[in-house]
Amino acid sequence: MRIRHWVRVVRWYLRELTGEAEYDRHCERHRRHHPLAPVPTRREYQVLRTRHQEARTHSRCC
Known about the structure:
Elements: H1 2-18, H2 20-33, H3 42-55
Protein name: CstA-like transporter-associated (Seleno)protein
Organism: Streptomyces iakyrus
């Protein structure tokens, strides 16, 4: 039981670290707010996210 717990913790951490969980959360929000629109692919999501970050240059430190 203890090993399963640690496996879940490590899996959660890696998903958060790599951004995979963020994409999943985005898909859930997208389906909830736009049920008839197709969900963007992971690649499309990354492009949109990058454009959004670049448009908000004032929030970056460097």
